């Protein structure tokens, strides 16, 4: 275990933790190796209405997680959870139950005013401004995405004629502390988007040696002196389209 004056930097490479997610195998049936994490609640509701997905089972706990499966593909769908600990913890559970090829779709704030609502970003790295990832990887400023998975995602987007960007995202634990100075610094180091999960999910996937990738779409604008929501939560057409696209991409991972 690393020694430090700061607990967050005391990384321990020992894999023998007291509590391990493998115990879930005795309580739940396996899920598909292909897992789609969707952050859009209303999109999941539409898929249920269309009978394109059905409830498989509920992962019980203080905050139950509904596990869905697609009717026409061997693929699992879950609704994403906000923040690194919730997102990363549930990813651990889902990997233990069989997930090996994982794709995330969700929105994120943009750090450049020229990035329109709906602009797609395939993250290639993330600034680790959260605490969760430091329990999975040694301390470092950034975590690199699985570039093989990112390449497969961008190849499919390019083939489909869909405009996108690749680059760095900023993962933070505290959206109420996205201060002007921090935003300026993150922009200067090359971050395009800001969100709350990616560095943690990349870290868990690397630690557990599974394939993970993400497609983020540009939402609210935090690049200016005043926050601009840009009504990004009302862009249901983008969200449904992105989810359907992600399902197609997941099949080629």
From TrEMBL:
Protein name, per record: Uridine phosphorylase
Gene3D superfamilies: Nucleoside phosphorylase domain (3.40.50.1580)
Top enzyme class: transferase
EC number of the protein: 2.4.2.3
GO cellular component terms, A-Z: cytosol
Organism (species): Proteiniclasticum ruminis
Reactions mediated catalytically: uridine + phosphate = alpha-D-ribose 1-phosphate + uracil
One GO molecular-function entry: uridine phosphorylase activity
Domain of life: Bacteria
Gene Ontology process terms (BP): purine nucleoside catabolic process
UniProt cross-references to InterPro entries, sorted A to Z: Nucleoside_phosphorylase_d (IPR000845), Nucleoside_phosphorylase_sf (IPR035994)
């Amino acid at each position: 275990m690393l020694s430090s004056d700061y607990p967050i930097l005391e990384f321990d490479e020992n894999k023998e933790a007291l509590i391990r997610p493998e115990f879930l195998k005795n309580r739940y049936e396996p899920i598909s190796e292909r897992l789609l994490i969707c952050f859009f609640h209303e999109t999941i509701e539409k898929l249920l209405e269309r009978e394109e997905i059905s409830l498989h089972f509920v992962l019980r706990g203080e905050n139950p997680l509904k596990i869905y499966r697609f009717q026409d593909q061997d693929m699992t769908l879950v609704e994403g959870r906000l923040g690194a600990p919730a997102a990363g913890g549930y990813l651990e559970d889902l990997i233990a139950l069989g997930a090996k090829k994982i794709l995330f779709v969700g929105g994120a704030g943009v750090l450049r005013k020229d990035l329109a609502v709906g602009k797609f970003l395939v993250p290639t790295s993330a600034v680790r401004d959260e605490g969760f990832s430091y329990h999975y990887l040694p301390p470092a400023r950034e975590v690199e995405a699985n570039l093989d998975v990112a390449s497969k995602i961008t190849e499919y987007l390019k083939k489909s004629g869909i405009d996108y960007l690749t680059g760095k995202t900023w993962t933070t634990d505290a959206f109420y502390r996205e201060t002007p100075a921090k935003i300026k610094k993150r922009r200067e180091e090359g971050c395009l988007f800001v969100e709350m999960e990616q560095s943690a999910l990349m870290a868990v996937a690397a630690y557990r040696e599974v394939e993970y990738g993400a497609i983020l779409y540009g939402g609210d604008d935090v690049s200016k002196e005043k926050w601009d929501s840009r009504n990004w939560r009302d862009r249901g057409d983008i969200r449904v389209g992105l989810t359907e696209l992600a399902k197609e991409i997941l099949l080629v991972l």
